[in-house]
Design brief:
This protein is of the alpha+beta class. Helices cover 43% and strands 18% of the residues. It has five helices and four strands, in the order H-H-E-H-H-E-H-E-E. The longest helix has 22 residues. The structure holds flavin mononucleotide.
């Protein structure tokens, strides 16, 4: 296959894989690094490089899932609280090998939507790199993220756009 065909195939093959699809096998560190590195090649107006990605793995990752579940419990009225959701939130984190917090940094140099667009393109780079490596991934924009602050070390000009979950797949090349 030539470059054009390879690219076309990757774009078409990209799809979201959810934590329930992951095998639990660790992603090769060099593969994970390649996926994360690919983000920085996204176009960005005035070179603001607005993406701020924090990688969570191991115990720290599982604790983030538990923290989100606690937030869900704290902010949800008892009559609409769902035990299943409370259990499912941390399960997604524990079933994943790596989770990246997707944070946008607003520089003030360009409109906010342009910074969000650049971050989204960086996420697409990660999606495509994950596809090429046979790693499962998806962007979760769970609304509970809006209740996080100190956990992500967010500055006033930053906001969390969600989380990029990753895990090995059955026929993983990574
Ligand atoms: C900005 C953004 C936010 C998303 N948030 C969620 C989410 O919170 N939960 C979810 O299940 N999927 C989420 N997704 C993934 C979409 O559901 C998924 O991309 C869509 O169903 C199309 O499937 P595909 O990615 O396999 O093509 C999100 C995707 C994007 C681009």
């Amino acid at each position: 296959m030539n470059e054009k065909e390879v690219l076309s195939q990757l774009i078409k093959a990209r799809k979201s894989y959810f934590p329930r699809d992951y095998t639990g096998q660790p992603i090769e560190p060099s593969v994970l690094k390649e996926i994360l590195d690919s983000a920085q090649y996204a176009p960005n107006h005035k070179r603001t490089r607005p993406w701020r990605f924090t990688l969570f793995q191991g115990e720290q990752k599982n604790q983030m899932g538990e923290r989100l579940a606690e937030i869900y419990k704290e902010i949800t009225r008892p009559e609409v609280f769902l035990e299943k959701k409370y259990i499912d939130i941390p399960l997604k984190w524990s079933q994943s090998d790596a989770v990246v917090a997707i944070v946008v940094n607003y520089s003030g140099l360009v409109p906010e939507w342009e910074e969000i667009a650049a971050v989204s393109m960086a996420v697409q780079n990660m999606y495509l790199s994950a596809t090429a490596a046979g790693v499962g991934a998806y962007w979760s924009s769970i609304s509970l993220k809006d209740h996080l602050g100190p956990e992500l070390g967010l500055l006033e000009n930053q906001s969390c756009l969600g989380f990029f979950f990753m895990g090995s797949l059955e026929d993983s090349k990574g």
